[in-house]
Amino acid sequence: MKAFDLQTCTWSTLKTYGKAPASRGGQSVTLVGTSLVIFGGQDAKRSLLNDLHLLDLETMTWDEIDAVGVPPSPRSDHTAAVHAERYLLIFGGGSHATCFNDLHVLDLQAMEWSRPAQQGDIPSPRAGHAGVPVGENWFIVGGGDNKSGVSETVVLNMSTLGWSVVTTVQGRVPLASEGLSLVVGSHNGEDVLISFGGYNGRYSNEVNVLKPGHKSTLQTKIMEPVPESVSAVHNATNATRDVESEFEAGQEGKIREIVMDNVDSEPMKIKTEETSERLIATLKSEKEELESSFSKEKMQSHHLKQELAEAETRNSDLYKELQSVRGQLASEQSRCFKLEEFVDVAELRQKLQTMETLQKELELLQRQKAASEQALNAKQRQSSGSMWGWLAGTPDEKADDA
After folding, report:
1. Most CB atoms within 10 A, among 5, 100, 210, 397?
2. 243 falls in which pLDDT band (50, 70, 90)?
3. pTM, full prediction
């Protein structure tokens, strides 16, 4: 990517980001706002292209655009222009075997291709032509069809898509060449077209100036060094013929001025008025649609605000209910804690009563055991005394009693 500084007259290489397009020639480059739109061309292997790329001049970032619809067929040496900062127009160009005169339009907002119907004097197929927009008019000069150069200069009204012929040249002149350059300039508040070079059997370095619909001669900065002896010859008797003035500018360069007589001013004025009326009607219709859309959007916004207010009210009520449920839950938890404490106390009391009963039974058993032991001891003592008395010869108490 190269840039030329008009103040220092120096070239420099610019650093870009993103994926750059493949190397190519014969592509079209169109400035749209702060971006360059690149379409088509032919790569190093002579393969024709119909891809679309965009370079953002603020960030210097490349982006490949994938538009919907049917794009133009692969081609090179076509022309492109932008209308209303929204529509990219592609006209003509050629492949290896044929030339085209089709017109394609890319909606840069919707990124959608279309092929509208053309009106008026549709130009013949051509490639290598040059084009430049002036207002809503797209002037196209030169080109060729692989057989000969195109002699007519045509203009397309980009609003109505109607073609008309501006002028026609005769012979193998640079204006009927391929590869010429075309720019628009301004002189005394009027637009002028300036072409340079081209190839039609031989290369040219001529400069040609076209002033549509104006009879006065043009004196631009490029023509200031011309000698005073040079003058233009105007043919006022034939209004349909171009008036040319040709002179030498140095040893090789030539400057030719083509001035179009404004003989069709009245029809053009009527056509312009009709176009203006259609444009005004279209603008009014668009205004009504916008107002209707705005009214609908406003009403919808009002409904949304009401729904938002209702939702906020419901949210507030739900929050209050949530707080109430939380309070009830806390009360139930407290009551449960108290019930658990009460159940624990009752169980302890029951266990205590059981322990007291067991203690009493234990004491009773202990007393019964002690009584049993006493009785057993007494019997043992009694039995022991009778045995010893018998052994000692003591008569038994029962014998005595006998």
Report:
1. 210
2. very low
3. 0.56
